[in-house]
Amino acid sequence: MEVVTVRILADLQGLVSDFDIQHIPYVDGAGYEIGKRCLPGTRAALLDEICEWVNSDSPDTPRVCVLMGPAGTGKSTIAHTISSLFSTTNQLGSMFCFSTSEFTTRKPESLFRNIAHDLCKGRPAFKAALSKSIGGDRSLCGTKDLETQFQNFILRPAHDLSLSGTMLLIVDALDESGSVKERAKVLNVLITRLRELPATFRILITCRPEHDIQRSLLKAHEWVKVKSMPSPDEDPALSKDILQYIRQRLSNEIDAGPGSLDDLCCNTLCSRAEGLFQFAFVACDYIIGDDVIGQTSYMRYQILLSGTETSASLDELYKTVLGQILGKNLAVLGAFKIIMGLVLNAREPLAMVSIRTMMTILQAQDNVDPDRILPYFGSLLSGVSEATTPVRPLHSSFVELLRDTARGGTYFIGHDGHHERLATASLRLLQSELHFNMGDMNTSYLSNKVLRDSPNFRNKVSEALVYSCKYWGHHLELSPVALSTTKEIADLVRHLLMENILFWIETASIADAVSALAPCLMAALSHLQSIGEDLWNMARDGLRFIRTFSRIIIDSAPHIYLSALVCSPSQSQMARVYGSRYPQRAAVASHGVSQWSSVDTVITGHTASVMSSVFSRDSRRVISGSDDGSVRIWNADTGEPIGEPLNGHGRWGVTSVAISPDGHTLVSGSLDKTVILWDPAAPITLNGHTEVVNSVAFAPDGQRFASGSQDKTIRLWKLSKGAVSSEIFTGHSDGVTSIVFSPDGQRIVSGSLDRTIRQWNVETGQPIAEPLRGHSDWVTSVVFFPDGSRIASGSTDNTIRLWDAHTGENVGIPLTGHINWVTSVSISPDGRWLASASHDTIWLWDIQTYAHVGEPLIGHSRSVTSVAFSPYGGRIVSSAMDNTIRIWDVSIHASTPAPLTGHIFAVTSVMFSSDDRQIISGSFDGTIRRWDATTGDHVREPLVEDSNQVASLALSPDGRWIVAGTMNNTIRIWNAASNLPREEALGLHTGPVISIAFSSDSRWFVSGSVDKTIRLWYPDTAACFGEVLIGHSDAVSSVAVSPDNQQIISGSLDGTIRRWSVARQHAIGDPLMGPGGPVFCVSFSPDNSRIVSCHVDKSITIWNANTGEIIGKPLVGHTEPAVSLAFTPDGSRIVSGSADKTIRVWDVATGTGLGDPLLGHTDIVRSVKVSHDGLRIVSGSDDKTIRIWNANSRGHAVPETATAEKNETTSSSALPEQTGSDTPDLVDAGQLCFSPKPQHQLTQPYTTESGSIGQISFDLETGWIMGNGTDYILWVGPDQISRLYTGECQVVIPGPTIHLDLSKFVHGTRWAECRLPSS
């Protein structure tokens, strides 16, 4: 029985392992093929050398061997032969063959997946180790990250594998794993990580001698063996091997009777091959190819040799094959050029089925059948015998021949006419096939990602249609302008833009081709104006639509209609032309926008402050560096990440990034004092600076780059033959903050903490003239004008200055207007505009008038760290400490609406007026503001505290006095009725006054300070009375007065709570010390019986106010410390605001949280208060906003008796009206409700499959409103979702609060009803 049990357990373990491993995708057909081996007896010397390397047990044996040689030299044949030899000895672990013709499946992410699968075959120990490494993590099985794959699929399991001999892994045709950029990651892993495998592993890699591969190998020469494929001079046996190959391939044609070949023919072909197997392959393939009536194999052989003695190259071979296939028939040659013109000029390879579609739709003008031409070119093109495999030349030399007029001759194929055909075919196809609901989607709840797992969904859109969607604009751009003015093209474009643009966008959404939409429209713009101004305007509007709603388009095709149209500005072309065609959808009931915002794209993904961002030269990408230690690349149109984060600086923040002019190389500087050159092959870490690197910049030639550091130096780095050298420039007396090259690359300009700007001669490293002086504080940013004549600089003195680059003199007047440090400046490519960043705003300046243009660009919620124009000038990219990147459309900046009026810094304190009709707020911006608690509108002018930061605020219960504590140690008192302050600020505290509280009779108030003291004051005389309360050993963070005015409680960062007698003005008993550590806030319950406190350990503690004992267990739920607390008027609930950006409501009796956290704020919630009637909560946050919440939503309600009691004294005007009132209604926030008006409520309920009401949640980062966590209900955007009425959140200040009418909103299985049938 025990044996049986053991076997069962073993079988179960095996099943578990198989279950895990089967979820790792595997690409069939990418391994060893027996038919691709060398002929027996050939390549013996090379094969022996490789076998000896594989079997060597010497510790000095290199782990990796790279077999390198030109195309056609037989590398792959060698690899397959080695695979065959070692598979017989069970030493072959895996073979993976990259291939350009199979690139759609044999991608870099398939390499380690296939190797892992292969290593499991017959190796149960590896299988078990792999299963253990995966640990049942399905997401890990599907990861595309190569580092993660290698670590978990190969390296960890390999170390658990016990081998008696060597284990061989083969990677064939590494150069065909993608472009230089695409293969950089896999190359880096292979070159840097393979040596971590056990010593018994051997890895054979074959590749062409590409520059990036060779450069990477130089860094790994100590443990990588590089073997070049021998030339005929180096290996006399090579010619013999080629001869044997030719004899074998032509064996059926030799001495086979009249018209056959003989051995001399084989020798002649071998001589013509000149050591290139590719020639032998093409020649033999042609000779034994399809029979042609009247031709023998010898005749075809003679045709091959018909060229002169010096032209027996691949060019002549290709020409010969072309001539034989095409003959002298000009019509056939013309058809070949049309089809090959389409193949060569297509933006990406097309399969035969797509070529057929394109040519069929062009039949009326060309009448060319690709099936009568392309299948004959199997020796030159791949994919011609398969329907869905992309048609590609087998070798790039064939393309080079056809593209070169001199080399191609008769067969030359240029661009003329071919882009016109592709544009016409694409537009015709779009007109005939686009329609509503291209994916036949039966619900709006599922994401595109989920739907793409269904083959039926993927097959809804043909490859040819997808190609047309992506590239019609590019081909139109590359066609003569005259094409656009033809009636057919004009009509096709008009129909696409004015009738089908949403269907076009939907098709790209379904096909995962959204990133191609904006470039396609941008390319077409140059021709659209010649067709019609209305089309040009529509295209530009469509471009804004795509960029603004890229999140929707990527995530869910139905929401192009259900969400994007809803959020489109009412006066936009998209809304005006298409809005009425889709009436059954949500609508903005109040406070919608009429024009597009300046914000084009919001990019999220970094987990810490983004310190630097720049555009690539083509403006298609954005590169960013962050305090999270990563460098990232983003699509500038969609905001989607491109590739994985570049993590080379570890946990150290990235301070600056730059991209080379050719767009292939990045450079980053970091807090870790290093510079990293992100070469496509492998990153190179450069050491030299002794302090933080603040700035990096590329020279215009791309061969040099510079870095500026806190160590006061500038280093000029030079690239030469794969090596990097540096020179040091010294002269600044403090840290270098910013550097940039002049447009001609001859100078570097630098800004410094020493308040100066210097110019440097790049060749000599010496300063040019004297430093530029004028700023009165640190210089944070410098930039050259495009013509190199002037320099602009920004400073912590809040100004921008312009300088003559030749004389060093100030130009014009300083640009003033920023109220905080200028952190970054940038000049537009035409030199007309200057962009500057400061705190959370960006200003655009007219250089000619020295005046700022329009309103500030506002959107970032924290300090803007960098700003940069796109190379084309129409857009600006900015990064900020709010972890985001924003791209702004400068062209519509002038039409941007005025920014919302509110606090411009963190809101530190909020409260209701005594009648609950107003909200009073204080802020670090030095103002105190009053707001209408129902509408969120301003009430009266703000109270200004002379630019002092308001740290705390209190309103006397009788409404007479407003008292503020400031960060400059003072207290200010205002008469609430007159708005007039007391003459003098109260200045007895020696530290910031961070807490104020009034007595319930309004006769006095108490203040707590960072100076560790507590003071009592009379508001009417502004006099301090009684003793200074001293006892805390650290800052007093919070004070409160008992409802009976007999006690004061104080919380401190020293971790204690103290009770003080007001009458005797000394401490009562011992300090209260809980386990939570430093105290952030304290409050009394309305009945004097309880004290509540919040602590640094994220807990909230309730105390008995009389005994000082802790009541129950701490309230736990916040993920960061709570910093503000308030009791409801009846004392049954506690409201807490936290650094985790949420508000929670707690039941005092049970100590449990009620309902879900209130979400909406995007930063620390510093202050919370409950209205006197207990129906509303107000909160203030570091995100500069104030929110008013329904206290009775989702389980937060006060007890029924308490509500009834309060309502007895509440006027009827405060209650919800039944018709058309904007007064906040008490709506169940679990339902979809985005307006207080009954007529705006949902008529199609959102329910679960069981029929119950679905749970609604808000993704503040993406802007999605989700149902049950997975259903896509509606998108309103990250900037708008925070201002949305939700039933829970009734008012957002500054507003206006957005209301949505859901009465016509169809969703889920009814979503397609949104469209008028006639449309």
TrEMBL record:
Name the GO cellular-component terms. Answer: nucleus; transferase complex
- List the keywords (alphabetical): Repeat, WD repeat
Q: Give all residue intervals belonging to the Nephrocystin 3-like N-terminal domain.
A: 49-208
Extent of Polar residues compositional bias: 1209-1221
The answer to whether UniProt assigns keyword Repeat to this entry is yes
Q: Does the keyword Oxidoreductase apply?
A: no
| TM segment ranges | none
Q: Which SMART domains match?
A: WD40 (SM00320)
Q: Which residues form a coiled coil?
A: none
UniProt repeat feature WD, residue ranges: 603-644, 654-679, 686-727, 729-770, 772-813, 815-855, 857-891, 900-941, 943-975, 986-1017, 1029-1070, 1072-1113, 1115-1156, 1158-1193
Q: Tell me one Pfam family matched here.
A: NPHP3_N
- Annotated region Disordered: the residues are 1197-1221
Please give the name of this protein: WD40 repeat-like protein
